[in-house]
Amino acid sequence: MATIREKQGAAHTRIMGVGSYVPSRVVTNDEVITWIDSSDEWIRTRSGITERRWATPEETVLEMSVEAAGKALAAAGIAGDQLGAIIVSTVSHFHQTPALACLVADRLGTNGAAYDISAGCAGFSYGVAQASDMVKAGSAEYVLVIGVERLSDLTDIHDRGTAFIFGDGAGAVVIGPSDTPGIGPVVWGSEGDKYGTITQTFAWNEAPEEGEDGGEVRGPFLQMEGQAVFRWASYQMAEVSLKALAEAGITSGDLDAFIPHQANMRITDRLVKVLDLPEHVPVARTIAEYGNNSAATIPMAMDRMLSEGSAPHGGLALLIGFGAGLVYAAQVVTLP
Predict the structure, then answer these.
(1) Cβ atoms of residues 136 and 183 within 8 Å
(2) Per the count of CB atoms within 10 A, which of 81, 83, 220, 280 is most buried?
(3) Which of 101, 93, 82, 109 is nearest to 17 (CA)?
(4) Cα 21 from Cα 177, distance rounded (Å)
(5) Which helix (H) or strand (E) holds 224?
(6) Which residues contact 113 (CB under 8 A, 6 or more apart)?
(7) Annotation marks residue 158 as catalytic
(8) Which residue in 121, 158, 205, 293 is the catalytic one?
(9) What is the pLDDT of residues 235-257, one digit of tens each?
(10) Is 106 helix (H, G, I), strand (E, B) or coil?
(11) Secondary structure class of 198 (helix, strand, coil)
(12) Would you tell me how many other CB atoms lie within 10 Å of the CB of residue 24?
């Protein structure tokens, strides 16, 4: 009997380059409180958000993805036709098929594998894990991972619990072979029993409800059980973060940056406390200006920290994403 030949990939992987795209429209808390009964102080205290970025009609998920990807490819020194695969994490590409990744691949000039994943705010870290495994398995030499969202399209501006939270944007990284370990083991999972804590108001194939004036209600929109999600993220994600450090064989004192999903400033504060992070370790807090960009928050924050010099190139960073599903993923990486 013939034996199947296996392909051998790289022994180790790393993030080679990062890029991001920040939409042009700034939506301040003062604008938000014209939609809901709230105040700037209440929003800042509850979430840490002072403003968020919303995309213009021209800033589509495709255009933002291509912009972020182009910067990541340039930083990595890789051409689009060298990519073996493109993974796009998003919940705001409203065509069930074909995947947004295929359109990105066409724009970048690659015929590599291209597909989308739906893992909410953990999607980028899911993509990093998959890309690293691809490179190690030999199914791709270089993989582009994109997190992109236009959550403004899914935001009910009259919902006091969510109107102030979400933002738009894109971030991307190129993952390729490395002589030394650059991406630690992923700690990931799901808690499907909490499926209903973050959902959309109705399915795409359901008819919208009628408004009070007889008009059709827009949507569907994102809806969230805020307190339940806050408790889950604040406590259980602290354990996931600690496990990711242990799996990578390092301590919080070895970190050069902490880049958590930008869900809520109070959640970030809780994670910092549980991890017992030394004061010298910089922490991503882009939620203050960008809002919650779901799958895009981690790469957007990574790019900003590196660009501003608050995190060092070549330093160790802990990433953790968590959100709708409920799903989560965390890993330690070497910054490009």
Answers:
(1) no
(2) 83
(3) 82
(4) 25
(5) strand 222-224
(6) 84, 85, 86, 139, 140
(7) no
(8) 121
(9) 889 999 999 999 999 999 999 99
(10) helix
(11) strand
(12) 11
Q: Which of 29-33, 74-78, 160-164, 234-238 has the highest mean pLDDT?
A: 74-78
121 among known catalytic residues: yes
Within 10 angstroms of residue 105's Cβ, the number of other Cβ atoms is 23
Active-site choice (29, 93, 264, 292):
292
Q: Is 292 a catalytic residue?
A: yes
What are the backbone angles phi and psi of residue 189, rounded to the nearest 5°? Answer: 175, -175
The residue assigned the tokens 């930008």 is: 262
Q: Where are the beta strands (DSSP E) in 120-203?
A: 143-150, 168-178, 187-190, 198-200
Q: How confident is the model at residue 216 (pLDDT cuts 50, 70, 90)?
A: low
Catalytic residue among 29, 93, 261, 293: 261
Q: What distances in angstroms separate CA 301 from CA 25, 90, 184, one per listed residue? A: 18, 17, 19
Q: Which residue has the tokens 């496990």?
A: 243
Q: What is the pTM of this model?
A: 0.94
- How far does Cα 280 stand from its chain's mean position? 25
Residues pairing with 189 in the sheet: 328
Measured CA to CA, the distance from residue 246 to residue 256 in angstroms comes to: 16
Reported confidence tier of residue 212, pLDDT bands at 50, 70, 90 = low
State whether the Cα torsion 283-287-289-290 is positive or negative.
positive
